[in-house]
């Protein structure tokens, strides 16, 4: 849906803007509302969701949805979020509806106008989501974005649902501009560097290989991935040592003093990243949550691998 979907949404935004201009007695948002609803839109599972009017009471089941909704300016409409939600900080005070498993009864008792779910939970939460549908509670399953383009699509799509197409376009424009700026800075560095990213500590070290969102970030930044397999997989210390990455990126924070612990692992003293003091801890949320903050994660990786590009 990518390119055509965004074009269609931008056309909708343009139409709404023209309508706003013609009626000077209405606020921009009110003018948009006059033709926006009722709205029928197909979600990631193929269900057609009907939204009769702008949602005023929203439940979000995953942090990336919550962050996007907050960026769209509708945070005050959130009445329930997951236990994992922590950004922006203000969402910590919103009622929680569960973490890995959701309290369907509590969601029902909240009487939301709309529930934003996610494709990653579509199978595991299928029974609960169908229960909400059977009770007439609209539930929209957001697509699992696998790259930046699909992330832009989901932001635009949620903007349409919440009648915030203009704001969604502004967010996407800002993100694309920042990505281009980061890439230009990285291009100023003459030599390509390699990096290894780990998401868990030993003895079970996991990394991101090809066909992952991390790989796309590496490609955008001209970083050679030291991981040679596809997907997320467990890797041995011996394989990491053999790959000899220029930079080691630590994408977890559950172990105190993890940077020094990584440097002291058996055999790691021969790795270029350790010898040159280039073991860096990064924010897992900005890299794994497909929300507007994704560009912050891209910038953090770029600064960790090519720090000199950002000192000018």
TrEMBL record:
Keyword Ligase attached: no
Species assigned in the record: Kurthia sibirica
A single BP term in Gene Ontology: cellular response to iron ion
Segments forming domain Fe/B12 periplasmic-binding: 57-309
Family statement: Belongs to the bacterial solute-binding protein 8 family.
Protein's UniProt name: ABC transporter substrate-binding protein
Signal peptide feature range: 1-20
Keyword terms: Signal
Database matches in PROSITE patterns: FE_B12_PBP (PS50983)
Pfam families, per database record: Peripla_BP_2
């Amino acid at each position: 849906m990518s390119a055509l979907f965004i074009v269609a949404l931008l056309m909708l935004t343009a139409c709404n803007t023209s309508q706003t201009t013609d009626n000077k007695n209405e606020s921009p948002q009110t003018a948009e509302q006059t033709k926006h609803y009722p709205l029928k839109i197909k979600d990631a599972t193929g269900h057609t969701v009907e939204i009769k009017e702008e949602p005023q009471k929203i439940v979000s089941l995953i942090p990336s949805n919550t962050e996007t909704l907050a960026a769209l300016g509708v945070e005050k409409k959130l009445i329930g979020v997951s236990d994992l939600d922590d950004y922006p900080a203000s969402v910590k005070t919103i009622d929680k509806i569960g973490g890995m498993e959701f309290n369907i009864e509590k969601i029902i008792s909240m009487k939301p106008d709309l529930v934003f779910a996610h494709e990653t939970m579509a199978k595991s939460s299928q029974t609960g989501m169908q229960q909400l549908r059977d009770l007439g509670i609209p539930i929209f399953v957001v697509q699992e974005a696998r790259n930046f383009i699909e992330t832009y699509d989901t932001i635009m799509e949620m903007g349409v649902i919440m009648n915030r197409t203009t704001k969604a376009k502004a967010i996407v424009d800002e993100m694309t501009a920042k990505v281009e700026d980061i890439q230009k800075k990285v291009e100023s560095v003459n030599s390509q560097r390699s990096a290894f990213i780990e998401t868990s500590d030993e003895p079970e070290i996991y990394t991101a290989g090809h066909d992952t969102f991390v790989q796309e970030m590496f490609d955008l930044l001209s970083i050679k991935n030291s991981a040679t397999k596809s997907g997320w997989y467990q890797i041995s210390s011996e394989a990491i040592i053999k790959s000899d990455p220029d930079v080691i990126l630590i994408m977890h924070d559950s172990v105190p003093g993890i940077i020094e612990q990584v440097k002291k692992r058996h055999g790691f003293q021969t790795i270029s990243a350790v010898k040159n003091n280039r073991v860096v801890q990064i924010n897992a949320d900005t890299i794994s949550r497909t929300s507007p903050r994704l560009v912050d994660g891209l910038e953090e990786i770029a600064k960790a691998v090519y720090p000199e590009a950002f000192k000018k």
